[in-house]
């Protein structure tokens, strides 16, 4: 009986943790800042495509000019994250509109998403795997 009393709470805890371990939810850091909800989320290619096709936001490519020459997502605004005035360039975007940001593989765009959050953007979606994942999924780019 003592063993059962010990095992049941552990089993309940493990079941609760495994059921709530949704990787999609784990990447949604929604926080209240000065009365508004800030969403910064990593999304896969299919979700990013839906967001881009919704035409409800701004597409942002933060790669270098050499990378842009190889192809970008149609309609993307190009801002090189390595430019010394990158933050100033970001301030030209509408902070109240969603931003769909990507780079080559997701690292630089993740940093850009963090900067945008600090600058007061309310909704930022980062493409996991970047343009590489986009291309691997067979989605179109333009030159």
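Q: What amino acid sequence fits the structure above?
A:
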């Amino acid at each position: 009986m003592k063993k059962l009393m010990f095992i049941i709470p552990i089993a309940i805890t493990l079941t609760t943790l495994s059921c709530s371990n949704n990787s999609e939810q784990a990447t949604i850091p929604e926080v209240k800042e000065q009365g508004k909800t800030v969403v910064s989320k990593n999304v896969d290619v299919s979700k990013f495509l839906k967001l881009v096709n919704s035409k409800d936001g701004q597409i942002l490519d933060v790669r270098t000019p050499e990378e842009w020459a190889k192809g970008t997502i149609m309609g993307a605004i190009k801002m090189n994250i390595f430019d010394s005035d990158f933050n100033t360039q970001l301030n030209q975007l509408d902070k109240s509109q969603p931003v769909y940001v990507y780079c080559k593989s997701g690292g630089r765009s993740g940093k850009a998403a963090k900067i945008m959050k600090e600058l007061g953007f309310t909704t930022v979606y980062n493409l996991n795997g970047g343009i590489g994942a986009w291309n691997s999924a067979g989605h179109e780019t333009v030159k």
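Q: And what stands out in the fold?
A: The two ends are 70 Å apart (CA to CA).
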